Structure formats: structure tokens, C-alpha cells
Amino acid sequence: MLMARRVFPNAPNHKLGTLVNYLRLPITGQFHRALADAEATAHLFIRMHERIQERLNCPAPSCTQLLTIQRQKIGTF
After folding, report:
1. pTM assigned to the model
2. Which pLDDT band, with edges at 50, 70 and 90, does 16 fall under?
């Protein structure tokens, strides 16, 4: 959630279901079921990773870079 707040500051809120709808990610099942939530989280992480790659102009952001982004103030990424 911290990363999503930095990467998608204009989302209505940062609940998983809201982000999935906001970003038009695939819905593979019913929310709050383990498999569906895991798949939605994976799709969300991939989208965040793509956005970070674009903004940093970096093909493979490191774990350290991701943690740095997560710690930034909202709206500064």
C-alpha cells in the first residue's frame, strides 16, 4: 500500500479492489479470497514496476530503489 500511494497518488484510495478497478487490471476471482487477492496483487505489482521503470528510466529498479520510493513523501515520486 505504501508503494501504491507513491506511484498512484491520484487513485481514489489505495485498497486493492479500488486500485484494480482504477488501473483496469484483470479480475480473476472474488476479492478477499486468497487466490484472487494474490493474483490481483501480482498484477498491481507488475503495473507499479512498469510505472517505476518509466519514471526512473531504469529497466530493472533494485530493491533498494523500491524501498527508497516507498519511504518518500506522497506526491514526490
Report:
1. 0.86
2. very high
